Amino acid sequence: MSNDTYDLEALQNGSLANLALTKFKLTPTPSLTVFPDEIFTFGPSLTYLDLSGTGLSSLPPNFTTSLPNLKILFLSNCAFTTFPDLSSHHTLEMVAFRHNSLTSIPENTLPPKLRWLILTDNRIPSLPSSISSCPNLEKCLLAGNNLSTLPLSLTQCQNLTLLRLSANNFSSLPKFLFTAFPKLAYLSFAGNPCSLSSRKAHKLPFGLLDIPYSSLAISRVLGRGASGIISQAEWKPSPDSDFTEDVAVKMFRGSLTSDGRPEDEMEAVLLAGSHESLIGVVGKVTGYSEGEREGVKGGIVMSLVPGGYEVLGLPPDLESCTRDRFTEGERGWEMGKAVEMLTGIAGAGAHLHGRRICHGDLYAHNVLASKGDGHGLLGDFGAASVYGEEEDGVERVEVAAFGRLVGDVLGLVEERGEGERERAMRRGLEELQRRCEDGDVEGRPDFDEVVEVLRGMLGWRGVMRIPEVPN
Question: pTM above 0.85?
Answer without folding.
Answer: yes
